[in-house]
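Structure in, sequence out. Go:
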């Protein structure tokens, strides 16, 4: 398909208040693409219902996630910002791609294994076929690059396999996307258990630092972060907690591991944790202020959603029409 710009697509689920994992692993990098790229950033509410959500909270978080996109620097005039359920082609293509995704492939997804263990009372088909919907999100826009944290790498590889399989059967239909994973911040770990990924749906508030936490809460949470019985700021065996704090400090300050080790030599964990908290709080303060302002203007957020959905739909409809034709569906005449 002819494209005059490289296409970027990514999304975040409104399944909780976003964490610094979502910020450093994904959203912060959404602003990294120059003007010769067209960027689509979606609030993926259809993905969020693979886990039971309280309807009023899902609605509020959908507004919040969009407001956070803008507060983190995404200009709605330069990027297509929209809500997944406003563009029905996502669900439509997901169904079709389900028929080109193998049971064995879906069974190997670690997120499915983790989430089904965590939500044993609700192992629904949507949780299982989540990667086909993610493939649809990406392939609908003929996406070249997908900025994600490293936890999404496996899903992205499956999207590539689905695209190649479909292209192999029907000739070139989809662009095969590449992941765009940041060097610093690709996998931020829980502050309470540094062997586990930091997740917005974690029920332990001390495990997660949220983008919207106030300064005191951020500093307190870092002070309580689990480390080890030593005192040296460096990476090593049994030092997952310190290593995680070094990754966070590095992502916020741009300092290398060697610079961090030198800066905190002989100063102990207390001072180090305080510095990580300060660096994080300083970086997030302007985001929070802009978020508060945007949440006071719901009409503006709804205008952004409407404009974004119209732009996205136009391009999604083009891919869908091609897909329908290739697989042998008769294009419906409108109006009918
Ligand atoms: N801990 C993390 N470190 C770096 N990147 C992360 N991402 C998530 N957690 C981390 C990246 O954030 C983007 C949006 O994630 P998502 O909303 O699609 O779902 P997720 O990966 O399942 O994130 P959570 O926070 O763990 O959500 P819940 O708790 O609802 O499952 C993705 O690019 C992801 O890589």
């Amino acid at each position: 398909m002819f494209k005059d710009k490289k296409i970027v697509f990514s999304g975040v689920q409104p399944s909780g208040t976003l964490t610094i994992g979502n910020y450093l692993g994904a959203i912060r990098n959404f602003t990294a693409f120059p003007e010769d790229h067209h960027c689509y950033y979606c609030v993926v509410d259809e993905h969020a219902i693979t886990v039971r959500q309280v309807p009023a909270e899902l609605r509020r978080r959908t507004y919040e996630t969009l407001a956070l996109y803008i507060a983190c620097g995404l200009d709605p005039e330069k990027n297509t910002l929209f809500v997944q359920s406003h563009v029905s082609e996502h669900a439509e293509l997901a169904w079709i791609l389900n028929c080109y995704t193998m049971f064995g492939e879906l069974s190997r997804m670690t997120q499915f294994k983790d989430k089904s263990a965590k939500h044993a009372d609700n192992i629904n088909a949507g949780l299982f076929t989540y990667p086909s919907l993610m493939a649809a999100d990406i392939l609908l826009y003929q996406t070249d690059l997908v900025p994600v944290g490293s936890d999404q790498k496996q899903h992205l590889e499956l999207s590539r396999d689905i695209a190649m399989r479909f292209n192999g059967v029907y000739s070139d239909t989809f662009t095969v996307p590449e992941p765009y994973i940041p060097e610093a911040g690709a996998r931020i770990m829980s502050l309470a258990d540094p062997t586990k990924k930091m997740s917005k749906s974690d029920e332990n508030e001390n495990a997660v630092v949220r983008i919207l936490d106030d300064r005191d809460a951020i500093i307190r949470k870092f002070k309580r972060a689990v480390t080890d019985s030593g005192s040296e700021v460096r990476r090593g065996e049994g030092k997952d907690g310190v290593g995680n704090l070094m990754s966070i400090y590095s992502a916020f300050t741009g300092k290398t591991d060697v610079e961090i080790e030198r800066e905190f030599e002989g100063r102990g964990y207390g001072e180090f944790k305080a510095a990580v908290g300060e660096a994080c709080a300083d970086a997030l303060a302007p985001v929070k202020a802009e978020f508060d302002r945007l949440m006071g203007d719901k009409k503006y957020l709804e205008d952004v959603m409407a404009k974004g959905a119209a732009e996205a739909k136009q391009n999604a409809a083009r891919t869908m029409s091609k897909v329908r034709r290739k697989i042998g569906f008769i294009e419906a005449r409108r109006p009918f």
